[in-house]
Amino acid sequence: MTNLRATDLYHTGIIVKDVEASMRQLTDLFGYRWLHPVEYPVPVWTPEGESTVTLQMVYSRDEPRLELIREVPDSPWSFKGDTAIHHLGYFVDDVAAASKLLSDKGCPIEVSGNGDGVHPSGFAYHRCPGDLRVEVVPRGTIELMEAMTASLEAGEEPAT
């Protein structure tokens, strides 16, 4: 792997105070439609150690995809400065290899999934010079998102 590809950008993550209010605003302004919001504890790893963070988030059904994430104070999911844009999310074939590539290019890992003590597992956020934050997630995540969208279109509650 030499680089991440621009064509693998699949969402822009935005930190918000109120997920539902932000959904309503973006629907009113731009016509966005949404998957069901989810909230669950996420085991994470940071250079300071392991912990669990409860995240509430929702993805737009429409592209370009947005991911709204409720702020978690004193965590990587808190407001920094005066911008709500949190990260650019990219699909990758291998999270560990992409994380190594980003780290080698001067973008150290900030937080990652911590599945059974293995990290990065499932996702990884990297902080690059100039405050750019990049998330890498397995390419297979798109199948889960598409299944959730199909469930919505069928009027079913999507599995979380």
Would you give an account of this structure?
With 160 residues, this protein is an alpha+beta fold. It has a single domain (6-153), classed as 2,3-Dihydroxybiphenyl 1,2-Dioxygenase, domain 1 (Roll), CATH 3.10.180. Helices cover 22% and strands 35% of the residues. The chain is built from three helices and eight strands, in the order βαββββαβββα. It has helices spanning 19-30, 95-104, 141-153, and strands at residues 9-16, 38-46, 49-59, 66-70, 85-92, 109-113, 124-127, 133-138. Strands 1-4-3-2-6-7-8-5 form an eight-stranded mixed beta barrel. Strand 7 (124-127) and strand 8 form a beta hairpin. The chain starts with 8 loop residues before the first strand and ends in a 7-residue tail after the last helix. The mean pLDDT is 86.
Notable characteristics:
single chain, alpha+beta, 2,3-Dihydroxybiphenyl 1,2-Dioxygenase, domain 1, eight-stranded mixed barrel, globular, 160 residues
- The CA-CA distance between the termini, in Å, is 31 Å
| CATH homologous superfamily classification | 2,3-Dihydroxybiphenyl 1,2-Dioxygenase, domain 1
* CATH hierarchy class name: Alpha Beta
The CATH topology assignment is 2,3-Dihydroxybiphenyl 1,2-Dioxygenase, domain 1
Can you lay out the helices and strands and say which pair or pack?
Layout: E1 9-16, H1 19-30, E2 38-46, E3 49-59, E4 66-70, E5 85-92, H2 95-104, E6 109-113, E7 124-127, E8 133-138, H3 141-153
Parallel strand pairs: 1-4, 5-8
Antiparallel strand pairs: 1-5, 2-3, 2-6, 3-4, 6-7, 7-8
